[in-house]
Design goal:
By secondary structure, the protein is of the alpha/beta class. The protein has one domain: Rossmann fold. About 35% of the residues lie in helices and about 15% in strands. The protein contains 10 helices and 6 strands. The structure holds S-adenosylmethionine. S-adenosylmethionine binds next to loops. S-adenosylmethionine (SAM) binds next to loops.
């Protein structure tokens, strides 16, 4: 960061126990991509890097320390743990007990709960967070509405998801999903000798970018603070403005919303 301008320094990410990357920047994207390549062999590295990066993004817009944070569909709790490391009062809400225990004991106070119907009063959370869950629900609008409901007026909502036409849209069957989800699953089973984890229409859904953007922009209870590619090193916001192309080029849409007072 030496020699960087004031605005750049302000935009720099603070990482609790890792290097600091400017967001967006090529170095950050390369670091995220490198850790992604190790997702299977070193999940701690991948999820730790991703969690630090996401919490950095939140911290640019809200105080994490002392805030009540809910992590919806947080899997085994990497993001919840990172929020707690930064002083947040964070809680994990995850419906799948296998995901919850996938890496040992989940964070204390974890709740088995569905994001469609959270056991939380209206306006309870300062920050409502969800990473890579929206493509796993068949009714993204209801899921988003529930996130908005539990967020305090003035609070922050962080949602990111991999859209269906992203090169990673088919998840482990990518990029063969471009030739059809069924064919991609068959190919995966032939190649790996086991069924793919995700089945379109069961636990993975064709969520696109345009309809979700139109939905959040039309809502009168949230302000869209940011709509951008989560991982791109440049043109992260510009890509999302181009209908058609954004469905292929965004990879993963990050929405940061403010609940209207
Ligand atoms: C790809 S994992 C993402 C885990 C973690 N948030 C991350 O970014 O690494 C998708 C998660 O969404 C959860 N999920 C699926 N349907 C859900 C729902 N209706 N409500 C809340 N979570 C859900 C799954 O159980 C799973 O843990």
């Amino acid at each position: 960061m030496r020699g960087a301008g004031k605005a750049e320094r302000a935009a720099a990410l603070r990482v609790s126990d890792g290097p600091t990357y400017r967001d967006p920047s090529l170095r950050r994207s390369i670091a995220l991509f490198r850790s992604f390549l190790k997702e299977q062999s070193d999940p701690e590295l991948f999820y730790g890097t991703l969690a630090r990066d996401a919490v950095d993004q939140v911290e640019r817009l809200a105080d994490v320390k002392g805030s009540l944070i809910v992590d919806i569909g947080g899997g085994s709790g990497h993001f919840t743990e990172e929020f707690r490391r930064r002083g947040g009062d964070a809680y994990l809400f995850e419906p799948d007990t296998a995901e919850l225990h996938a890496e040992g004991a989940p964070p204390s106070g974890a709740v088995v709960a569905d994001g469609y119907l959270l056991p939380l009063a209206d306006g309870s959370a300062d920050i409502c967070f969800s990473s890579n869950v929206l493509e796993h629900v068949d009714d993204p609008t209801t899921f988003l509405s529930e996130m908005v409901r539990v967020t305090k007026p003035g609070g922050l909502i962080y949602v990111s998801y991999t859209n269906w036409l992203s090169p990673w849209g088919g998840h482990e069957t990518s990029p063969w999903h471009y030739f059809g989800a069924h064919r991609a699953r068959e190919r995966y089973a032939r190649k790996h000798g086991r069924e793919a984890k995700h089945t379109l229409g069961e636990n993975l859904f064709a969520v696109h970018i345009g309809p979700v953007l139109r939905h959040v922009r039309a809502r009168d209870d949230v302000e869209v603070l940011s709509a951008r590619s989560r991982y791109w090193p440049f043109l992260a916001e510009a890509i999302v403005r181009v209908p058609g192309i954004r469905e292929f080029a965004t990879w993963n849409l990050l929405l940061i919303l403010r609940r209207c007072p």
